[in-house]
Design brief:
Glucose Oxidase, domain 1, two-stranded antiparallel ribbon, alpha/beta, 14 helices, Aminopeptidase, about 25% helix
Length: about 550
């Protein structure tokens, strides 16, 4: 998972207060196929021992952290193709193969930024003060004397009457913007913010880094840095790790003059604006007010980036189960999970391999076993199912982005996407949930599948909505395909009420994107099995339904 974001796990005491879909979870859990006898053989095919074998293999040191363009990729792709063949999955590429080639550009960059204002100078230190998410993809790139502009949140959203770039030309400028998006008070006392303005407490896609980068690039900015407070969350530290490694981008012509797009610490932003005689905190406060506009900081930046570039052909692994209804077999439900992780770092002392056991060997294992379940069905669903193990999610959802730009199945024939990332390895839960709840009617399919298992589907927000933009489902959503990002719940069966929250918080703090994300002897994969069965039921029902899933009116991803 590229960004764990503000994932919050909730205990049983809080869950008792939540609005839920379906009845209370059954005291005695339903056996596989009890509610849907026709799926019994598919559900029974998903077994703990198989999940364990997949995770153990993919997260082993022999696979070297599964980085794109490495021996680890070769081993991973070969393994997944072999598993699809063994499971009876048909090739997913119309050319008769199990792979889709994904051309990438790899880069290792050394950026330099020097600021000058009021006769003084300061140099920003790479990694400590700022990191790049994407530099210009050429050996050298530079912008000299670039004006510095503070552009609020870096958002242009006409439907909300918001334009941070109003009446300002940011060509050849270094743009500094805040993370997140603006809000305004709600009309009801209980509302922290107005739900009709940038969706209130739920983040919209405008708040994402990708949206802010794209807006600045469209306007010809020389660079854009999104300001984060490293003490307020792990986002900046995660990108510090990524910035030290080889980055990747799709091998496509770059447009615009942007030299660097990245993140900046709030301390560095304060230093830059202070050099120019401005108070960053005052600028930030003003940016949230109606009528806010970009402000020239009266400082300039010299930006240069030197990069070592290479071209790589990575691969998505694709498998297919054909639908049974001749009228609907050319329509598809997609399951996705990313096979890649962060590879290995020879600069580290001791353990150098980012094994990525939970992120996302666990999700890939579930994908393979869901595929096996569908292949085992005597009667296949009416629509077809496509299984995509995508590359380079950790580098910016590149495999899924390439897929929707070069789909093997027409986008108009792809009716839904279910993404699996970071599976539950700590036991069964009586509840399940999803991030970005309420964006599409796919949530109804997840809720019904949970009910059939005797589980509860929690509709209370898992987070502020930002996690929905943090894995491959976002690329399908941007293409107009209703997409969900499901999760296990927090109410662990037979465990103390805070067990789930403690486990996920410990993983986030100690193991996420670290070399310690490894297979553990105390794992209990019964929950991962039950979740995979849940998602098989949900996908089967979607593939059977006469009606396609739809975006809700509130979703920004509705096809126009």
């Amino acid at each position: 998972m590229r960004s764990l974001g503000g994932r919050v796990r909730r205990g049983l005491a809080h869950l008792a207060l939540l609005l839920v879909v379906g009845g209370a979870a059954s005291a005695s859990r339903k056996q596989p196929g009890a509610a849907l006898p026709e799926l019994a053989i598919a559900l029974d095919a998903i077994r703990t021992e198989r999940l364990s074998a997949h995770i153990t293999t993919l997260a082993s040191d022999a696979f070297e952290g599964r980085a794109p363009g490495t021996r680890g990729e070769t081993l991973t792709v070969d393994y997944l193709v072999d598993q699809f063949v063994r499971a009876g999955i048909q090739p997913g590429n119309p050319d008769g193969t199990y792979v889709q080639q994904v051309p990438l550009v790899g880069y290792r960059s050394a950026p330099h930024i020097e600021i000058e204002a009021a006769g003084g100078k300061t140099t920003l230190t790479f990694v400590d003060d700022y990191v790049h998410d994407l530099p210009a993809l050429r050996p050298t790139a530079s912008a000299t004397g670039a004006r510095i502009v503070f552009a609020g949140y870096g958002i242009v959203a006409p439907e909300y009457g918001w334009d941070d770039y109003r009446n300002v030309d940011v060509r050849n400028t270094l743009v500094l913007v805040l993370s997140g998006e603006p809000s305004r008070p709600g009309s009801k006392a209980a509302d922290a913010s107005d739900p009709a303005f940038f969706a209130g407490r739920t983040r919209t896609y405008y708040s994402s880094r990708e949206s802010k980068f794209a807006e600045a690039a469209r306007r010809g900015a020389a660079g854009i840095l999104v300001v984060y407070d490293p003490d307020a969350g792990r986002t900046y530290s995660v990108f510090q790790t990524l910035a030290k490694q080889e980055g990747f981008a799709l091998a496509a012509p770059q447009t615009g003059a942007t030299v660097i797009s990245g993140l900046m610490t709030i301390g560095a932003a304060r230093r830059v604006t202070s050099l120019a005689g401005r108070d960053f905190d005052a600028l930030a406060a003003a940016a949230a007010q109606p009528g806010a506009h970009a402000v020239a900081v009266n400082a300039t930046a010299d930006i240069s980036v030197k990069s070592v570039i290479r071209t790589v052909v990575s691969r998505n692994v694709v498998g297919r189960v054909a639908g049974a209804d001749p009228r609907l077999t050319d329509e598809y439900v997609v399951y996705s999970a990313h096979w890649d992780h962060l590879g290995k770092d020879p600069a580290l002392e001791g353990d150098q391999i980012y094994n990525g056991a939970i992120d996302d060997a666990a999700g890939i294992a579930q994908l393979v076993e869901i595929a096996r379940g569908f292949a085992a069905l005597p009667r296949k669903p009416r629509r077809s199912i496509l299984f995509i193990a995508v590359t380079a999610e950790e580098k910016g959802f590149l495999g899924s982005r390439f897929y929707v730009q070069h789909p093997l199945i027409p986008i108009a024939k792809t009716i839904a996407a279910i993404n699996l990332d970071s599976g539950n390895v700590w036991g069964r839960t009586s509840d399940v949930t999803s991030t970005g709840h309420g964006r599409s009617t796919l949530d109804e399919a997840l809720a019904e599948a949970a009910r059939l298992q005797g589980r509860t589907f929690v509709v209370d927000p898992l987070d502020d909505g930002g996690l929905y933009f943090g894995s491959d489902q976002i690329e399908f959503a941007k293409a107009g395909i209703p997409a969900v990002f499901p999760f296990s719940g927090s109410a662990y069966v037979g465990k103390p009420k805070d067990y789930g929250e403690e486990r996920w918080n410990a993983y986030s703090a100690k193991d996420y994107h670290q070399v310690t994300d490894e297979v553990r002897a105390d794992w209990d994969l019964s929950g991962a099995v039950e979740d995979a069965r849940w998602l098989l039921i949900a996908g089967f029902n979607v593939a059977e339904s006469s009606a396609r899933p739809q975006w809700t009116r509130a979703s920004e991803f509705r096809r126009k």
